[in-house]
Amino acid sequence: MDGFTTFITVIDEWAWIGWIVLIALFLVIEMLTLDLTFLMLSFGGAVGLVTDLVGVPIWAQVIIAGAAAAAFVFFLRPPLLHRLSRDEDPTPTNLDALLDQRGVALTDITQGSGQVKLGNGDTWTARSFDGTPISQGSRIAVTEIDGATAIVHPVTEEDF
Q1: Can you tell me the distance from the alpha carbon of 28 to that of 25, in angstroms, rounded to the nearest whole number?
Q2: What is the model's pTM?
Q3: Is the same domain home to 53 and 35?
Q4: What range(s) does the NfeD-like C-terminal domain occupy (predicted)?
Q5: CA separation for the pair 78, 37 (Å, rounded)
Q6: Bridge partners of 144?
Q7: Residues near 86 by Cβ (< 8 Å), separated by ≥ 6?
Q8: Average pLDDT across the chain, whole number
Q9: Which residues 6+ apart lie within 8 Å of 100 measured at CB?
Q10: Whether 46 contacts 20, CB under 8 Å
Q11: Residue 95: what pLDDT?
Q12: Same domain, 76 and 105
């Protein structure tokens, strides 16, 4: 036997160790990322390990493992991600929670200045959304947040 044939024979005989190392590496990376991508790749590696144990040639093991990993990534991962995310709290937080928040104008609000008290108790500097002056005591709603300034527009009693 020449050197190349010996090399291929050694790789073929010890491929199971390579598959186990690859699976372990993918699982460690998955524990760090928690994205399920590397978990799917480790499943593909497990398929490669099984094909090695049943005696499939190394070139076919790699092709089968790659195809299995791709199938897991494209067909198993999306429903798993959906299932994991369906119990998330849909309540907006941070700046998203302030959008469309109702409140009262504490001072006259112009395009350049003003102050509002929001329904959550926060007091914000404010500007009129479209430049229309809003008088003190008027009901308002937050349209957007620009730095530390609430951009607001007037709302009617029914909208409040």
Answers
A1: 5
A2: 0.57
A3: yes
A4: 96-154
A5: 10
A6: 151
A7: none
A8: 90
A9: 141, 142
A10: no
A11: 78
A12: no
